[in-house]
Amino acid sequence: MADLRIFSYLPNPRVWKATIAARFCGLDIEVRGALPKELKDWLWDYDARPLAEDERQSLSPLARTGRVGLTGAQLFKTDAFLAAQPFGNVPAAFGPGGEVGIFESNSIMRAVARLGAATHQLYGRDAYEASRIDGFLDVSLVFARDAQIYLLALSVGAVDATIHARAKEAFAIYMSGIEQALSPRRNTLVGNGITLADVCFAAELALFMNEYARADQLTSLGLDKILHAGVGSEYPLALAHFDRLLAHEHFRPDLAPYVDKLLSKIAA
User: Fold this and answer.
1) Residues 100, 136: one domain?
2) For 170-209, how does the pLDDT look when each residue is reduced to its tens digit (9 = 90+)?
3) Is the peptide bond before 36 cis (omega within 30 degrees of 0)?
4) What span, in angstroms and rounded, lies between the C-alpha atoms of 116 and 114?
5) Last residue of a domain, one of 60, 87, 115
6) Which keywords belong to this entry (predicted)?
7) Does residue 67 register a pLDDT over 90?
8) Is the model's pTM score more than 0.85?
9) Is residue 121 domain-resident?
10) Full domain range(s) for residue 247
11) Burial degree of 158 (CB within 10 A; 0-12, 13-18, 19+)
């Protein structure tokens, strides 16, 4: 049995925070899911699976109205799923057996690090390093919130100048902090090795690169790309760190193909 099971839309860099951490820690993580538009045809449960056509009627009492990302969609969520996942969102992680639910990608990643602490100290060597890591993870949540609103608006053609400005400011604050943390010629954000702070940074930046796929939309609205051609000169240490992490054996399987696909949008 897997150490942790995760149900989510896929591909999803926020899920990969956990799978990257699991490679460092030698844990077995099971990931179930499908494309976002296909999740309305799944049973949301510890034993998540695609619904058979005849089940939609028999399971109609489980139907709930989707919100963020799946607004208005009819989603089939079991009572057990909602007991374990009180906010009803994905990614949704479960301990063995499904009774214990873990929600929010940073907390799922922390669970992996705690489970594998004897193998690799991704969560720091002591309480001080762990608390510094928490600081980076907390700041990432502020960036992630505005980034999600921005990327969702881009995906449905609803972005406007206000949403764009908020995302641009959040990106600048987040990246400036990462740049400063690396400025004393450091190769990682906390301590002397890769930690959850680095894993989270790589995943969130990879997700934000979805802006590349919507560049034409921004141009048509007269809005600048946040990930413009000169962004590397603004945050050279942060982006060099991102490249190092992409090349790492534990990051590469998940993030490299995803990033390469998005970078190809620029060439196209």
Assistant:
1) no
2) 999 999 999 999 998 899 999 999 999 999 999 999 999 9
3) no
4) 5
5) 115
6) Transferase
7) no
8) yes
9) no
10) 127-267
11) exposed
